[in-house]
Amino acid sequence: MKTAHLVLTLTCVISFTCTHAKIGYFWHITDFHYDPLYTSQGDTRRHCRRADERGSSGHHRALGRFGDYSCDSSLELIESAARHMRTRHSENVEFVLWTGDIIASRYGSDEERYQAIRNMTDLMGRTFSSHFVFPVLGHLDPAPSENLTNLWGHWLPLEALQTFKIGGYYTIEQSHSKLRIVALNTNLFSVRESNGGPAQAQWDWLNAVLDKAASHSEMVYIVGHAAPGSDSRHAYDAHATGANAQYLRTVRRHARIIAGQFFGHLHADTFRVIYDNDRPVSWALLAPSVSPHREPAGASNPGLRLYKFDTNTGKVLDYTQYYLDLAAANRGGAAEWTTEYNLTQYYGLHEVSADALHNLADKLRIGSPHETMAFNKYIRAYSVKRDSSECDGACAHQHFCAITCLELAAYRQCVEAAASALAAAKRAASLETPIAVLLVMFISVLTLL
Question: What is the mean pLDDT of the chain?
């Protein structure tokens, strides 16, 4: 693998011994949902999914040059993202994580869908001509095949191609560091696939890879399309319950060597914390999509994420979230991707760790003015500065539950407990007595236990 020119920083400890931290970068891009049929000459009735997206006169709106909040991605939108990525830290980019859902869900025959993926692969190859791109399969992408294997063969070594062709998963051993990348096929965690032979083969392979990494003192990035847990927008299980629980057990068992988990799928900017006996032991960061459309309803501005990390240890140091104000781009006729925020600065984190993200999650419970301010920052980032709708206390608790309760039963219990507490608080507030205030305080304490 190509070794990028690296910036060297010096970290010294009190004992006057020093270690060199090699700083590198990697992109995480996800959920293109590329629609080859998109055209600004069309309208929402023909191309887009939501019937409520109409103009004030009752006629369907015309579409913008770079896309529409109720549509999948136009070619011009994706090309503008590629141009932006070429200009950022190009000499220090180590690799690119590309986490699935490359094509639009409603587009074309199998051959047409494969050709669309080929076009996107060619675009990524031109954008990152001297870098390795590590793709994973989303739930809208074709099943593993010889065609896909041949298409991505220039990025993956022979060993990776062998497992990818069979099951859509693979591992990459970095030649110049102790960091290993493990790319999962999270489609095998679905209700339909989780009890089949291919799913069990992936579990056996994953356990063997992680055991080997531990014995060789390697650190691991786990990369996939859909993260464990439930969606904060509504209570449903993203994976089969058994597969979800098995994944969490695997992460807990190997938390010491897992330096990060990276997913997409939700078309939203959020994170997850994994606990072992109530102790935060691992984390997952979910990047927002390039596609502006989000199901079942809603939209986000398109986003791209650039991580900063220690290439020796794999420790994630920070990331920069870039975004495109889609409405402004369509009005002005130019796609100006800009920095939305830096993770550590935006949330005031001293580091990126399970403990730090656990503490951040605690701040997202709306209560004090400080906590409300933290949640408002989170919810702005969640939709990439697009969604201005209100998120009340029940909504905020649902986000908190999705971040911290990744088992389905725990998530449901968390959401139901929060809903009951908020309802009781409203009833108590209507009494307008000091007893009501005490009751609200008591309920708040119970929800923290």
Answer: 85
